Amino acid sequence: MSEEEPYWLAHNATEQQRLTKQHHVWTKAIGYLLHPSIASALPEDARIADIGTGTGIWMTEMAKISPSTYQFDGYDISDAQFPPKDALASNISLNFGDFKKPIPQELQGKYDLINIRLIVISMGVGVWESTLRNVLTLLKPAGAIQWIEGDFFAARGFRGSSSTSSAGHYLTKGQLKLNGTLKGRFGYNFPDFTPMFIEAGLQKVEEDVISTDRLPEQRSDFTEIGIGAVFSGLKNLASTKIEGYWTEDEVKVNREKAIEDMESGAYLRWDLHVTIGFTFPEAAAGTT
């Protein structure tokens, strides 16, 4: 995978709205913004880095329920989704940062917590491990990391409980097409988080896995979010006009069919993974 590979979702108001809804739906399904094992271990003046911050929504929501002495610094490879600075709390900052590359010296050993969410669309074989090694240099000794991702390789459409429901085949078809296209383009894959964290030298590693259909009332919300992500990605990939990719017309037709699946009562489901770990208290920053 090229380090310059672009982000294959949109950068516009519609995508911002989807990301905001996604945040709230995912948080309700998971049951927390911050894993309880980390929340109880943070110091009173915690410094927190949010990687792939996007709109900064995770930091904004965390700041509402955290001590005012916490400092939140969001980093992203693009500022396209950043809200205006005056819309943020005084203890939140937004910054450019590419954490697939070595961390600047001035940021190393600076943070008590790293939060990473939903950067799967830009990841590939070997990139997960190298990114983890990079971001861990941000942490102080006894610092913590929380990484939240969706396993879209496990995603497919299912027939809903309604007698009118389709079997969800077009929901499955769109997801499989995006997965296959991204895998072929740059080795898109999903890691085994627990051994990856352990191999990186982290301790007290925990991994929660939550199915998106666990709460029946959220199935339609997850499906709407999934359709938005899948077909936005496929539309942008269509613009490359590479043989074997769907054309824009094919994306449009299959999106309409996927929406019909959803409206009939079928739903898209996948797994959410929340993995946490801590650096060793005696370790020097950046040596984990």
UniProtKB/TrEMBL annotation:
The cross-references to InterPro entries, in alphabetical order and at most eight, read: SAM-dependent_MTases_sf
Record protein name field: S-adenosyl-L-methionine-dependent methyltransferase
Taxonomy-wise, where does this protein's organism fall, top ranks first? Eukaryota, Fungi, Dikarya, Ascomycota, Pezizomycotina
